[in-house]
Inverse folding.
């Protein structure tokens, strides 16, 4: 028996996560993402590799989406509505609630701002989401007679989950993105000790080991505080969901402690609307935040106000959360153009920006002139602060997870090529586990567990469970060497209970294979027992 | 499998309680509290009440002196408010549970928030060590209800002061004997045996401790007990978080169906599909009686329609039956219109209802109809747990019905009360004396509060205030079994009383089609069901009927367990074939493991005593003496055969005498062969030869 893994996306890169796993005749697509860095056909996974005839309904048993980020769900509406996949789709409750927001936002950016031809419409997003079955954490879903799936908490963003899948005796986990340390609003990833044939894990930070998150957060707060106390404006370009809420909880807390009156703004309706979702989904956040729900919902931000376009050039300090992140266009770019020219102002950037965005340019060379396009060039004078905390696990976290699960094989996805190669080496040398880092459109074939099913008679099971004591007297030599205190603690006799499971495996034509106790065997064979004794005279 | 029904319970608020012995594991199903027994107690007396009590007490003392001949007359007297027990109430647990040693219980399964109410009594017992499984939503709701009960009970403690002894006077035999028969039945039960179930209330610390011992589950999460049992909870639909259970074991699966509802306007509906194909199904929905009592024309037609849709094999028919929904809606409309009428006349409306679903729907409907009729009256929710409860309800979308979940996906609030609270259309206060209520109090008004059998909390005070006003309206659930007794302390009651039946259960007519669909092999049914439905005609499953406090033995269907043999172990098998290739046999040795209710046989990891087990074969059949001779001569051993004596009694078939190269004799019997030689190595070499000839396993 074998498990076949076809990597359609996020193979030796970050973006368009999509892995198709075939085991024991079932085919599961994990994630269906898009690549933010491409605008041509390369932005979507090459679905023709799944089935050259494009008959996806018979080719794929189900789709599982781990979380709502576009590089994990971006191609879903395209795959279901345009490519015609109609089968079951599973994701957690928060992902089902928030994924359409992300898809709709992306569609808007694509069509309204960039003037591209739309690949799917709002109605198609709604249609697509109707096909989705929402699952709870640890809920064991029987997709069909043979395929069983289960979600485990993954941290990363609200509703992010690792998925376990089992067909027959073959078992595997696909992690999606995860975080092994808790952050401001989410807990750390949690999973049971499973017997896995295969673990497919992300490896964004394959070689990085991060230090305390607390110090990094303080750096960020200090930078913001310094800026607003000098009357500057702080621009925090983020995506509407996840990072925005995390930073906002951080700022709210700080504002309260320091008794600051500087306004915090959220741009556009999207983020405010997102907060409404977060309030209902609070049970998916960290324990600390969950416990506060009855008195004050942590996502009921007190200091946050709505931002109007007219306020861009209003005097006085403020903090603004603007979409989209990485300053890839839209409103955050509009604000950036206005604010970047003053030294008083501050722009914070996430730890990772996709190549080709303004964010990426700012990170590569600080304090420079940035070309927006062929015509416009901005003289960037403002301060730039790079956030040093990330919702992804670091390399230690990946190693911890691999060590905890000790699967028979590991496949790395969602990372940078050379870093993945070194992590692969490390996993192989430290744990002796077969590890792979396939490129896009490559297929990895591994063997899977297969066991023999049989019936076991009650007598056999009972004989296995009956105690089998062995007594061992402790030698006096040992006792002499030990001290008097040790002597009194030294047991005179050691008892071992090693249970023996011995039986006879019988395969009779036309019947189920059966394990019986040796005493039962002769009955089955309708033969008499024959003892052979030998004696000496 | 052994099953004992400890209590059939009584409706929604007092679910049934059973003990199940499955695969040697003792499982307690629910641990409820009979709060209707509170009816025997008097609410906290008011000042004028007190004077009556005092006069009664002196009267009683007089009576005591004449008790010798007056007893019987007293019993037959009409029940009066002063007959109620004026003491800090105790609580009635499931009496039969006292007969079990709590330390022998291995697992407790809690199926609903109501089923957890008696649990602190159990968890605080010495030696209690069972693993408690409960859905997360049930645990949270149950905890709120228990904390609310403790806070309400606090009033009594304030009033009566600390208890003087741990045996209150009303529990004494002589006191019980002079009680009116109605009250005595509440306290002692019909058979007069239930006195042992009474307990003084647990403390807040007990509840906290109890909750720490629970293990919360998500929807359909697999919990594995001891490797032997895999436990899964599926929604039952009667309340948020309430569930039915599936227990998987190597001996087969058992399903437990508690009170369930196909349609719910708030909780996730009855997930019956997940219960299909169990070996044994314990049917524990006792809603049967209720529906019969109220079997008016309407009810009948609904059930009949349902039956039809099911018999036409329409699986979806269960859940998408809009008739019942419409009926529910009609009921709510009726309550709302009565409320509006009452308000218009200047009366206040008191709604002491403990069903979450009904409260939530009523809140939504009521505020809407108030708005529609342009009435501006305050709506209060008075309960110590209300604030937290309402906040909680908006953050557990995973246990809500489809329509509510759709709201989550659309980004709307799950229930309208969030908006209503913000707009101050409803006000939530913890108690009747809270500052906020005293400042804002206006009449007429509408008040929602818990009922606690009309004996404690805000309902008592409000009833005293409004019971004499014919303009006011009291809306009650049908579950209060004895309305007269419930209102006894408030007599004379001139306010209007509206009692509504909210159906909760599978319903009599659906039982049979449901069981057919679930295809269990054996069904355990309450005895009550035998008279109402003829299940014996059913061929697809066998039916066993159970009654309270009687143990039912259910044979396992399987005598064998499934086992999985690891491939690395299986690859080492050395096969022997018997009986014309029909049977192949191999000896196997491994490590038996129990995991996720499945036996696994793995390759032994440490081989330290692998040498010792090298040879200890079983032989069968008879050694063929000719063959043996041939084999012996091959080894250079010669001898002669002496065939067995002709008399049949002899066990000996033949004896081979060997002279060369050494002296030995081989005696072949019907059940054994005896080798006799002078040297040990000779014996073993002959043994090997025989071993080769015989069929060894």
């Amino acid at each position: 028996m074998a498990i076949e893994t076809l990597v359609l996306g996020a193979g030796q890169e970050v973006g368009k996560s999509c892995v198709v796993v075939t085991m024991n005749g079932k085919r599961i697509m994990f994630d269906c993402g898009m690549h933010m860095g491409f605008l041509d056909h390369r932005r979507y996974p090459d679905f023709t590799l799944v089935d050259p005839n494009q008959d996806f309904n018979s080719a794929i048993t189900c789709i599982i989406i781990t979380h709502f980020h576009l590089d994990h769900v971006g191609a879903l509406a395209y795959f279901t509505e345009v490519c015609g996949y109609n089968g079951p789709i599973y994701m957690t409750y928060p992902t089902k609630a928030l994924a359409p927001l992300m898809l709709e936002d992306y569609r808007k950016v694509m069509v309204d701002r960039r003037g591209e031809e739309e690949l799917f419409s709002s109605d198609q997003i709604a249609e697509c989401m109707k096909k989705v079955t929402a699952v709870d954490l640890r809920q064991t879903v029987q997709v069909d007679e043979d395929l069983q799936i289960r979600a485990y908490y993954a941290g990363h963003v609200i509703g992010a989950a690792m998925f376990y899948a089992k067909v027959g005796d073959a078992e595997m986990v696909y992690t999606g993105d995860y975080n092994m340390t808790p952050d401001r609003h989410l807990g750390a990833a949690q999973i049971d000790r499973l017997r896995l044939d295969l673990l497919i894990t992300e490896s964004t930070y394959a070689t990085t080991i991060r230090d305390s998150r607390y110090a990094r957060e303080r750096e960020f707060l200090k930078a913001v505080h310094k800026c607003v106390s000098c009357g500057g404006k702080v621009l925090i370009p983020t995506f509407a969901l996840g990072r925005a809420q995390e930073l906002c909880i951080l700022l709210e807390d700080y504002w309260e402690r320091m008794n600051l009156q500087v306004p915090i703004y959220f741009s556009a309706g999207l983020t405010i609307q997102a907060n409404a979702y977060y309030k209902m989904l609070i049970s998916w956040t960290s324990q600390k935040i969950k416990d506060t729900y009855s008195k004050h919902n942590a996502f009921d931000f007190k200091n946050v106000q709505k931002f109007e376009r007219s306020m861009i050039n209003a005097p006085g300090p403020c903090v603004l959360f603007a979409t989209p992140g990485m300053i890839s266009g839209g409103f955050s770019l509009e604000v950036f153009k206005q604010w970047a020219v003053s030294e008083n102002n501050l722009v914070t950037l996430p730890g990772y920006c996709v190549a080709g965005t303004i964010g990426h340019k700012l990170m590569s060379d600080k304090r420079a002139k940035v070309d927006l396009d062929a015509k416009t060039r901005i003289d960037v004078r403002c301060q730039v602060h790079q956030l040093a905390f990330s919702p992804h696990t670091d390399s230690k976290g990946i190693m911890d997870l691999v060590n905890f699960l000790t699967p028979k094989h590991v496949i790395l996805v969602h990372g940078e090529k050379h870093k993945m190669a070194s992590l692969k080496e490390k996993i192989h040398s430290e744990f002796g586990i077969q590890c792979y880092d396939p490129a896009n459109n490559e297929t990895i074939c591994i063997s899977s567990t297969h066991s023999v099913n049989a019936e076991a008679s009650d007598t056999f099971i009972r004989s296995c469970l009956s105690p089998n004591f062995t007594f061992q007297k402790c030698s006096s030599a040992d006792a002499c060497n030990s001290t008097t205190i040790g002597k009194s603690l030294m047991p005179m006799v050691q008892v071992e209970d090693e249970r023996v499971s011995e039986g006879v495996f019988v395969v009779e034509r036309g019947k189920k294979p059966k394990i019986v106790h040796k005493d039962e065997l002769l009955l089955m064979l309708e033969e008499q027992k024959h003892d052979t004794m030998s004696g000496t005279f | 499998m052994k099953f004992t029904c400890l209590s059939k319970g009584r409706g929604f608020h007092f679910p049934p309680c059973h003990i199940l012995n499955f695969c040697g594991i003792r499982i307690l199903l629910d641990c409820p509290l009979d709060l209707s027994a509170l009816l025997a107690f008097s609410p906290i007396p008011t000042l004028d009440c007190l004077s009556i009590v005092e006069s009664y007490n002196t009267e009683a003392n007089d009576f005591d002196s004449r008790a010798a001949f007056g007893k019987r007359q007293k019993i037959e007297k009409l029940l009066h408010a002063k007959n109620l027990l004026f003491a800090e109430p105790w609580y009635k647990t499931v009496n039969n549970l006292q007969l079990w040693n709590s330390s022998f219980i291995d697992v407790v399964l809690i199926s609903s928030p109501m089923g957890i109410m008696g649990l602190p009594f159990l968890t605080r017992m010495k030696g209690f060590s069972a693993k408690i499984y409960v859905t997360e939503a049930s645990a949270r709701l149950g905890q709120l209800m228990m904390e609310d009960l403790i806070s309400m009970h606090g009033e009594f403690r304030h009033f009566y002061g600390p208890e003087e002894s741990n045996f209150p006077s009303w529990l004494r035999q002589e006191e019980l004997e002079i009680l009116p028969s109605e009250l005595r039945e509440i306290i002692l039960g019909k058979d007069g045996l239930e006195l042992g179930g009474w307990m003084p209330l647990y403390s807040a610390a007990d509840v906290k401790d109890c909750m720490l011992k629970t293990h919360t589950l998500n929807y359909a999460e697999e919990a594995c007990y001891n490797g032997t049992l895999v436990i899964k909870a599926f929604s039952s639909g009667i309340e948020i978080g309430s569930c039915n259970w599936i227990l998987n074991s190597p001996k087969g699966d058992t399903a437990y169906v508690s009170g369930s509802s196909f349609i719910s306007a708030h909780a996730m509906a009855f997930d019956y599909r997940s219960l299909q194909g169990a070996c044994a199904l314990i049917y524990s929905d006792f809603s049967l009686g209720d529906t019969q009592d109220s079997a008016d024309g309407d009810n009948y037609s609904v059930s009949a329609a349902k039956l039809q849709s099911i018999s036409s094999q329409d699986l979806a028919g269960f859940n998408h039956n809009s008739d019942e929904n419409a009926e529910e809606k009609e009921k709510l409309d009726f309550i709302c219109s009565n409320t509006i009428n009452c308000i218009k006349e200047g009366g206040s409306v008191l709604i002491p209802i403990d069903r979450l679903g009904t409260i939530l729907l009523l809140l939504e409907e009521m505020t809407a109809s108030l708005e529609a009729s342009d009435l501006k009256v305050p709506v209060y929710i008075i309960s110590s747990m209300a604030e937290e409860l309402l906040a909680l309800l908006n953050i557990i979308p995973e246990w809500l019905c489809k329509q509510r979940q759709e709201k989550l996906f659309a980004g709307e609030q799950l229930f309208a009360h969030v908006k209503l609270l913000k707009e101050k259309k409803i006000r939530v206060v913890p108690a009747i004396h809270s500052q906020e209520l005293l400042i804002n109090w206006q009449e007429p008004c509408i008040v929602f509060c818990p009922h606690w059998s009309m004996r404690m909390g805000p309902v008592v005070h409000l009833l005293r205030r409004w019971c004499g006003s014919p303009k006011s309206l009291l809306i009650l659930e049908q579950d209060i079994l004895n309305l007269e007794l419930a209102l006894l302390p408030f007599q004379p009651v001139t306010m209007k009383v509206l009692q509504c039946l909210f159906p909760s259960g599978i319903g009599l007519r659906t039982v049979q089609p449901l069981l057919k669909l679930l295809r269990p092999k054996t069904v355990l049914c309450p005895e009550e069901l035998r008279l109402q439905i003829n299940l014996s005609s059913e061929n697809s499953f066998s039916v066993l009927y159970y009654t309270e406090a009687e143990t039912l033995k259910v044979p396992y269907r399987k005598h064998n367990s499934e086992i999985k043999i690891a491939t690395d172990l299986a690859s080492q098998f050395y096969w022997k074939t018997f009986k014309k290739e029909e049977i192949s046999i191999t000896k196997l040795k491994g490590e038996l493991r129990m995991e996720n209710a499945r036996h696994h046989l793995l390759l032994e990891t440490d081989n330290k005593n692998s040498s010792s087990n090298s040879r200890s074969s079983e032989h069968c059949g008879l050694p063929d003496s000719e063959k043996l001779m041939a084999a012996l001569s091959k080894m250079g051993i010669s001898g002669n055969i002496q065939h067995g004596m002709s008399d049949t009694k002899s066990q000996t078939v033949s004896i081979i005498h060997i002279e060369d190269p050494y002296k030995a004799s081989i005696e072949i019997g019907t059940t054994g062969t005896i080798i006799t030689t002078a040297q040990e190595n000779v014996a073993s070499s002959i043994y090997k030869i025989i071993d080769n000839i015989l069929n060894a396993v």
